[in-house]
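tRNA (guanine-N(1)-)-methyltransferase, Deinococcus terrestris. Tokens?
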Amino acid sequence: MLTFSFLTLFPELLAPFASEAILGKAAARGLIGVNLVNMRDFADNKHAKVDDTPYGGGAGMVIRVDVAERALASLPPADEVILFTPAGERFTQRTAEELSEREHLAFLCGRYEGFDARVETLVTRELSLGDFVMMGGEAAAACVLEAVARLRPGVLGDEASHRDDSFSSGLLDYPEYTRPPEWRRLAVPDVLKGGNHGAIARWRREQALARTLARRPDLLPGAGLTPQDSAALLALGATLEDLATWGAPPPPAPRRKRSRTPKPGPGL
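Tokens:
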């Protein structure tokens, strides 16, 4: 079981997210554990005050490092102690895959002006969801919880369902369709209804390449492209220079047609 411990001032924000839908079922089956720790319980004063004014002046309040330390000390040892901060490394699918191999992850969810900078000495990793600012770390924690937990064996109904997800394969995901077969003159592609699984697989790969080329070409250098992918990208409008930039292999050499020597006719 992978246990997620979230140190927060607002555990009620994370409680419903962790107890409903697939995450709730996974917790009920003992596949994951979610431990919500209220840092106010470690304030060590009668008013449960966890923050104070910043040295040097300025707006807002700062969460005390001694409060965070006592809250962390109440937990079993964690494989990773993670702080959500704009200065952290970008959280990606690769990060989620790495964290899914752990057994206990502890997360510090800040509020106000964040934590006293000395908290950084207590953590093993700093993470950021992107270049934007939120009011606290709980929303980021919910995103990381779902991204990591779904990779644990047994959490999703289909063990292979996440392998072709966007970013897992290095590409954006291919488009999906279901009934009705036609809606407002938009029809499901015929190849998906033909039952030829080889053709479907090729179509899906080509669609993933097309979407990634059009929307997120920055992903292509790390997508593990094949010679067949290179040929498909060239057909989609990429250039040989683009392939070289992405580190893609050259496309397969075209097959040469064998010239046949005409057989001599009768009497020759």
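Helices lie at 11-19, 21-28, 65-73, 93-99, 138-149, 197-215, 227-235, 240-246.
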